[in-house]
Amino acid sequence: MKKFKAESQRVLNLMINSIYTHKEIFLRELLSNANDALDKLYYKSLQENLSFTKDDFAITIEIDKKNRTLKVIDNGIGMTAKELEDNLGVIAKSGSLEFKEKLENAEDINIIGQFGVGFYSAFMVSDKVEVLSKAYGESKAYLWSSTGAEGYTVKEAEKEGWGTEITMYLKKSAENENYDEFLSEYRIKELVKKYSDYIRYPIKMDVEKTRAKKDDDKKFETYTETETLNSMVPLWKRNKSEITQEEYQRFYTDTFFDYEKPLKVIHTSAEGAAINFNAILFIPSKAPFNYYTKNYEKGLRLYTNGVLITEKCADLLPDYFGFVKGLVDSELTLNISRETVQHNHQLKKIAANIEKKISDTLFAMLENERESYQEFFKEFGIQIKYGIYENWGVNKDKLKDLIIFHSVKQDKYITLKEYVQGMGENQKYIYYANGSSIDSIKVLPQAEKVLECGYDLLCLIDDIDEFALKMLGEYDKKEFRSISGKDLGLDEESAVTETEADKKILEYIAEVLKDKVSKVKLSGRLKSHPVCLTSEGEFSIEMEKVFSNLPNTQGLKAQKVLEINANHPIYEKIKKVFDEDKESVKDYAKILLTQAQLIEGLPIENPSEYSDLVCRKLSL
Questions:
Q1: Whether 59 contacts 203, CB under 8 Å
Q2: Does domain 235-371 sit in CATH 3.30.230.80?
Q3: Which residues of the chain does CATH 3.30.565.10 include?
Q4: Which residues contact 558 (CB under 8 A, 6 or more apart)?
Q5: Do 275 and 353 meet the contact criterion of CB atoms below 8 Å apart?
Q6: Are the beta carbons of 559 and 520 closer than 8 angstroms?
Q7: What's the fold here for domain 403-483?
Q8: CB contact at 8 A, 85 and 185
Q9: Among 60, 317, 402, 446, which is disulfide-ready with 483 (CB 3.0 to 4.6 Å)?
Q10: Which CATH superfamily is domain 9-228 in?
Q11: CB within 8 A of 318, min separation 6: which ones?
Q12: Can you give the three-state secondary structure of 338-376, one letter per residue?
């Protein structure tokens, strides 16, 4: 027995037990190696005018349940005794990488393996591994055999035809390890479909099937049929003009298990010195049930040369486009387990290209397919608005023209740009209001003055909305103003003056409500309504409501101002009562505050007290 030339038992144990996340990866690695061997012979045939075509090549998988063996067989370039020693006797030496480095035009052929450790993943599931190989053009075959880190043997053997046959003697299943699954035809088919569906050569396996007997259709017999397990030609490498919408939809449904057809398909590619990739991206019609939860994982499937590397590569999508599903296939530099990309600058370039494609698609939808865009925004608009707010607004300029809000004046969803275009010469600000629904916003007391002036009002109904607008600050040099903020910027507000008598009443009410509001004043924004709540400072009432639902933030409070309509009969009543029975003004103060809180959607601390107060006043 020969010892491994370069590495110790510790290194092999590290490869087997630590490098790969899932044991099932071994099949992907061996199929990738077989693909490389076929590529090498095919390339040789092109260079030397041999009579091969791609149809002459195949990979075969054989299962022997009785002897617990699994074989991966190819009719590729094969290996001599020296190549078996060099490639399999030295851990982490890759014949594929060496072959590629020798090519004058390396871009003419794709070699999947580069590190030479993928083969050793077979020991994760095997007690013993044998490699029977005969190099193309050679008369002798050789058998490499090893039970692990102790070493290996190489001896002359018999083999018909050239190529390589890898036999794995599978381990016995234990309590926490199931190796029997790799003797299941169904499981092998599943793994080929998952990882190696787009390898360029057919992967074949004899599959046991059942059929009715010819002489008695009530009885059944088993028979064996050779199946090709992989599709070979990826959809994303086909010409877009040849692919129907039905094919895109079927691929989306089969791959991502969404039975709603996608709202939009983006089939894109790039070829150049910096990046080279193909991608198919889908914008779903509906958000997954767990989309806005911590359990949702964003990311695109990542392939390199048709071999699946990872199910979800989060680095390919910014969070605000995390709703996109799809895949990317590119030639990437991988780490030794092929599970992650070694130099992420490649991913960053691809990700930037993909982000622009998604952005361009959304802008085109917004411009030309408004109804479809509104359906999209209904499902994923919150994510776009989060993108504006997160990371201190670093992406706000990219996203600000993608957000839409319902316009009270136009009674439809509009962009910020469209709002500004509809502003009159005298309007200084972009006005907005928060509420639980569009209908509730339309009847807010604070909205009357703005709408009476002929100004439009944007309806903010999602928790993130005001945070996003605060982060934007302005649009086209127009500042955002909440109708519940301190200053609406309307000249009419200054018309309200408080007499000395008014000040005494307001000071008294403020004292009664001192724990609930920071100030009480006569309002310049109310028309028909008796009362409303506004706020001072950047922390608004709506923000208080949002934070009240978050852990450890319930103490954050807005500086609330109770505004009373000086022209409303209720204030006349309060003035009269203040002179006759000052103590009873406390009841009116509490009733007005509770009404204002109800309008704002704030919780009522003592509903019973409020009910008793109202009933008492009604009975007078």
A1: yes
A2: yes
A3: 9-228
A4: 535, 537, 539, 540, 541, 543, 544
A5: yes
A6: no
A7: Rossmann fold (3.40.50)
A8: no
A9: 446
A10: Histidine kinase-like ATPase, C-terminal domain (3.30.565.10)
A11: 351, 355, 387, 395
A12: CCCECCHHHHHHHHHHHHHHHHHHHHHHHHHCHHHHHHH
Which residues neighbour 87 within 8 Å (Cβ) at sequence distance 6 or greater? 79, 93, 94, 95, 116
Q: Where are the alpha helices (DSSP H) in 70-178?
A: 81-88, 95-102
Q: Which two tokens stand for residue 339?
A: 């599970």
Cβ burial, residue 572 (10 Å; 0-12/13-18/19+): exposed
Whether the full predicted model's pTM is greater than 0.90, yes or no, is no
Q: How many Å apart are CA 539 and CA 485, to the nearest integer?
A: 10
pLDDT in tens, 6-55: 554 555 666 566 556 678 889 998 999 999 899 999 989 988 988 888 88
Distances in Å between the Cα of 106 and the Cα atoms of 100, 110, 222, 231, 264 are 6, 8, 48, 26, 36
Contact 61, 203 (CB under 8 A): yes
Kindly report the CATH number that applies to the domain delimited by 497-618. 1.20.120.790
Residues of the chain with pLDDT under 50: 8, 92, 94, 99, 106-115, 336
Tokens of 309: 């590397």
Count Cα atoms within 13 angstroms, Cβ side, for 118. 25
Cα-based angle 500, 502, 504 (whole degrees, multiple of 5):
70
Q: DSSP assignment of 171-230, as one string?
A: PPP-SS---GGGG-HHHHHHHHHHHSTT-SS-EEEEEEEEEE-SS-TTSEEEEEEEEE--
Nearest to 470 by CA among 537, 410, 518, 534: 537
* Structure token digits, residue 503: 């000040």
| CA dist., res. 177 & res. 340, Å (int) | 25
The residue type found at 16 is I
Start-end of CATH 3.40.50.11260 domains in the chain: 403-483
Segment 180-226, tens digit of pLDDT? 999 999 999 999 999 999 998 999 999 999 998 888 777 899 999 99
Token pair of 591 as six digits: 């009733």
Instruction: Name the residue among 500, 203, 26, 281 with its Cα closest to residue 508.
Output: 500
Cβ contact 324:282 at 8 Å: yes
The single residue listed with the structure tokens 């290194």 is: 11
CA distance 94 to 479: 62
**Distance (Å, whole) CA 582 – CA 537:** 32
3-class SS of residue 577? helix
Question: Which residue in the block uniquely carries the two structure tokens 């088919």?
Answer: 189
607 is written with which tokens?
């509903």
Cβ-proximal residues to 10 (8 Å cutoff; 6+ apart), any chain = 149
